[in-house]
Amino acid sequence: MKVNPRHHREPAVYTVTDAPRPMSEDIGRRQRRYLVSMGVRTICFVGAVVAAVAGAPWWLALLMVVGAVVLPYVAVIFANGGREPTAPAAFDDRARREQKPVSGQRPEIRS
Length: 111
Hints:
By secondary structure, the protein is mainly alpha-helical. The chain contains three helices and no strands. The chain is elongated and about 75 Å long.
């Protein structure tokens, strides 16, 4: 007689502590990160103008212009990069060893 072990598994139990953070909280975090990056970009741009007018070394003004040009691309990549991975809360060692799938992730599209 052959025993099929798949029928004897316990069902997966998900707890509230395993739930991901709300999407609104994640979007707010990404918006703040984007705004900080755009603030740094503005400082770089204004700093480049002030450095050029004040007679600072040309490489300093050029470095600030490069920062002002590159930062928008980097900020958009980080803002659209997706949700932050979070470590699940664990109450016992078994839960720490097992990584449960996050609700809403679809491996076929690598989300």
